[in-house]
Recover the amino acids of this structure.
């Protein structure tokens, strides 16, 4: 299908972009890579009156390291970050997860921040951001605020972004460990994950576990390393707690079952990498 | 600031396979439709129109992308390459196209333009991919005819013929 009519605006700066958002608020959608939004426009699931195209904004096209965090600007594509030479050293969990994001062709255009903005509960980048305790930087004419990933993503495709705010960057805390693992189950490689599990050994005593595709947003657990001995029990409990949901791709029951099976494998793999 | 109001038709220009092209379109026109219906370059195919099948893959500034997930106005000022840009001016097929022919990498050919464009980009970045890497790139395409084996064989053949050694 074809999109409904909309006004197209391509600002020359982030300042102009937030001015447009201040003017139109709810009626506007931000277009970056368009790998989710354009499909939604074509299917007429999204019908914004105004489209604000930020893909060409040079000032948002950067990856920089500051204060122990890797900051990724809103115009950076998923493949740009995947091919960033320092990624494996600084963010091994993200390096493990990025190959699962869509396909080569969609990562060429899809942006890191766009995936965070879209907030699909099974999506990999928001999961890693949440698991690492990252942040989202929002800018509007009212100022700039920084939200923790956990406060940003509120539910299925729902975030704390106000209609006049632009996500200008995401910040991933640098990891000091090699002990990471990421796995997901999908119908076809590159499709939406039915479930995804991320684990990273934070220090000698703690493990961080992130689960996508089971709750309405990424679920994050901090667990003592000792728990790994009975990871099975932990994932059994998590499966009960998170419940899962039914959709086109899988039933809630299948999601719980996959979590029970995949979870312990991912934890074991992360511990093995750390050793 | 570039602005196109919803009821307006605007002139959109970019280079297509090295030649300047331009035409009129509404803001909502997809690049696929602009190429096919405004410019008349029908080599780029349209399957699903929501990013799943990969038929519509073109290069935008050298990078493989879904043209059904791109607005024509987003291509303004860019260099777009489509399957029409692969063969030599006299019609001689390039190495990748020849390999597709030789290895039966197409039957109906509907998916082929997109797959050729994906591997044009990918092989330029990684001239000697492993079979897994080839299949990973291919996962972004759907082919209803070939079963993919011929496509993998064709890409492998081209990579074997590439002069640079694996790094
Ligand atoms: S037509 Fe573009 S991906 Fe199917
Ligand atoms: S050759 Fe027919 S769809 Fe691929």
């Amino acid at each position: 299908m074809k999109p409904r009519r909309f006004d197209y605006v391509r600002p020359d700066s982030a300042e102009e972009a937030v001015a447009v958002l201040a003017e139109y608020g709810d009626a506007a959608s931000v277009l970056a890579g368009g790998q989710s939004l354009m499909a939604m426009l074509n299917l007429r699931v999204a019908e914004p009156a105004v489209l604000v195209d930020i893909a060409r904004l040079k000032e948002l096209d950067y990856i920089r390291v500051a204060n122990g965090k890797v900051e990724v600007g809103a115009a950076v594509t998923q493949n740009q970050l995947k091919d960033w030479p320092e990624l494996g050293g600084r963010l091994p969990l993200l390096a493990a997860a990025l190959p699962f994001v869509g396909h080569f062709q969609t990562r060429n255009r899809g942006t890191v921040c766009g995936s965070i903005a879209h907030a699909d509960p099974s999506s990999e980048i928001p999961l890693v951001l949440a698991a690492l305790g990252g942040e989202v930087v929002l800018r509007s004419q009212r100022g700039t605020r920084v939200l923790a990933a956990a406060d940003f993503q509120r539910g299925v495709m729902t975030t704390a972004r106000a209609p006049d705010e632009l996500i200008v960057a995401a910040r991933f805390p640098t990891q000091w460990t090699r002990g990471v693992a990421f796995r997901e189950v999908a119908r076809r490689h590159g499709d939406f994950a039915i479930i995804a599990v991320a684990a990273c050994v934070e220090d000698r005593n703690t493990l961080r576990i992130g689960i996508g595709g089971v709750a309405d947003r990424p679920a994050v657990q901090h667990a003592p390393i000792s728990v790994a001995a009975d990871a099975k029990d932990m994932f059994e409990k998590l499966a009960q707690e998170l419940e899962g949901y039914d959709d086109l791709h899988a039933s809630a029951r299948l999601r719980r079952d996959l979590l029970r099976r995949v979870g312990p494998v991912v934890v074991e793999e992360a511990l093995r990498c750390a050793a | 600031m570039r602005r196109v109001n919803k009821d307006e038709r605007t002139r959109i220009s970019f280079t297509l396979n090295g030649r300047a092209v331009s035409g009129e379109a509404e803001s909502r026109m997809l690049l696929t439709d602009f190429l096919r219906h405004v410019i008349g370059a029908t080599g780029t195919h349209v399957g699903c129109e929501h990013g799943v099948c990969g038929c519509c893959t073109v290069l935008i500034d050298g990078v493989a992308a879904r043209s059904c997930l791109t607005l024509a106005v987003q291509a303004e000022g860019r260099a777009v390459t489509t399957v029409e840009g692969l063969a030599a001016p006299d019609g001689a097929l390039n190495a990748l196209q020849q390999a597709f022919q030789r290895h039966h990498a197409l039957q109906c050919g509907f998916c082929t333009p997109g797959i050729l464009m994906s591997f044009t980009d990918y092989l330029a970045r990684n001239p000697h991919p492993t079979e897994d890497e080839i299949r990973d790139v291919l996962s972004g395409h759907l082919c209803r005819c070939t079963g993919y084996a011929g496509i993998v064989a064709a890409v492998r053949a081209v990579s074997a013929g590439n002069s640079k050694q694996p790094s």
